[in-house]
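Practice problem: predict the structure.
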Amino acid sequence: MAKKTKKIPPMKSQKGIEKTYQKGMAKLGKAMVLAVKKEVLSYLKIHQSTYVIDAVGDDLIKIFNRLNAQFSGLLVSNYAEELASTVVTKTEKANKSKFDRSVQRVTGVDLGSILAAEGLEDFTALSVSRNVQLIKTLPEQYLSQVETIVTNGVSSGLRYSEIEKQIMAKTGSATSKLAGRIKTIARNEIQTINSQINLRRASSLGIKKGIYETSDDERVRPCHAELDGVEYDLAKGAWSKSCGKFIQPGITDINCRCSFSPLIEVA
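Answer:
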């Protein structure tokens, strides 16, 4: 009897897990902003009447060295490890639950035991490691940006209030570069991890084809929009003529919200 192909609904990433990741990084971001206020801005305020003519460079170097040591130390490393492990594990478990239920609805087969040992341990460990490093780059980039603002401000003879305004405008608000980077990392990483797990689980079932699906809104890249509904080889990705490359939905491009529906053969 000939087999027919059925489409399994796409396993989209969990917004709740993305929010957990974003809140966790925002907590670290808040600690950094408060440390800068306490260490850097307090120093500048105290010395605002003299730093334009006195040599305060050595003191500022010491302050930033201390802050860099604080936010690259064991405490932050442990926090990054805990946060990364939490969101990766939650993403894997949520994906498995949705994947198993979806396949069972389409095929009538319970995958609980079939995919019990699917070998995701290596992937999970690598994902945690990558995200630990991403989280740890937040203090590095933030403090470097603040140090540049302070150094340029002091060198130019700017008053404390103006330097404070520049720091808070660029790094201390909900719309700052820091907040934007936190949001981008959280969204992109959860989407990427979820999409990579989808590919692994589909492969473990011997599924080779999928249907490309976009989020179907104005934010979809034009060269991704042209792939909507296209059947493609999961191992290669979908070929985009406009982009000139193969695209794995949710993986190839940053902040891609596309997904795929695995095509499974049923009797």
